[in-house]
Amino acid sequence: MRSTVAVPFIALAFVLAGCSFADSNPFPYGGQPGAHEFNPIAVGKSVQAVVAYLEPRPGDVLELVGAEPIGSFDGATVKLWLSRPVVTNGMHYIGGNLEEIPGAQIAALSASPGPDNEVGIVGEMVASRPGVFTVTDVRLRYRTNGGDVQTREGIAEVWMVCADTPVPQDCGPTPAG
């Protein structure tokens, strides 16, 4: 009886997992959404966060055509940048080097998936008034191996910025108490 119950349950788990991945192929996005970053800043000051990761498949060359932030940021400007990893003492850091997205080409540096192949999309936000601003997605336009322009949306980290002068003491959810 135990194996009879377990087999349908395991089969159902694979079917559900297959459906969720089949409906939302994340390529070229790497990493999975679900994280949140909260930044308090002063009005008029700049703040940056890595909001998405891209991971080209070995053998593919991605040409980035453009990217737009999606969310609620009326009263703030958001510029998106490409950031290739910097390797220091064997550690990969993304976010230190910024370059324009349109026209950038990225390719896998390693024949197997992993951090060597991952680049980041960095958001830079400047608020022109006090408020709470949120980037909930990134719309990326790209070509794979010189093909047609494709559009995909994805994000690794939903980004909330709280702006005021002076800088807010806190930003983001408050602990339930």
Give structural notes.
- This protein is mostly beta strands and 177 residues long.
- It has one domain (26-164): Immunoglobulin-like (Sandwich).
- Helices cover 12% and strands 47% of the residues.
- The protein contains one helix and twelve strands; from the N terminus they run αββββββββββββ.
- The strands form three sheets. Strands 2, 4, 8, 10, 11 and 12 form a six-stranded mixed beta sheet that branches. A four-stranded antiparallel beta sheet has the order 1-3-9-5, with no helix packed on it. The chain has a two-stranded antiparallel ribbon with strand order 6-7.
- Strand 10 and strand 11 (150-154) form a beta hairpin.
- The longest helix has 22 residues, at 2-23.
- The protein starts with a helix and ends in a 13-residue tail after the last strand.
- Mean pLDDT is 82; it is low at 1-23.
Summed up, the domain count is 1
Structural class: mainly beta
Element string (H = helix, E = strand): HEEEEEEEEEEEE
Distance between the termini: 46 Å
Mean pLDDT: 82
Question: Main traits of this protein?
Answer:
177 residues; mainly beta; four-stranded antiparallel sheet; disordered N terminus
Quick structural summary:
The chain has 177 residues and is mostly beta strands. Residues 1-23 have low confidence and may be disordered. The protein has one helix at 2-23, and strands at residues 29-30, 35-42, 46-54, 61-72, 76-83, 86-88, 91-93, 105-107, 119-127, 131-144, 150-154, 157-164.
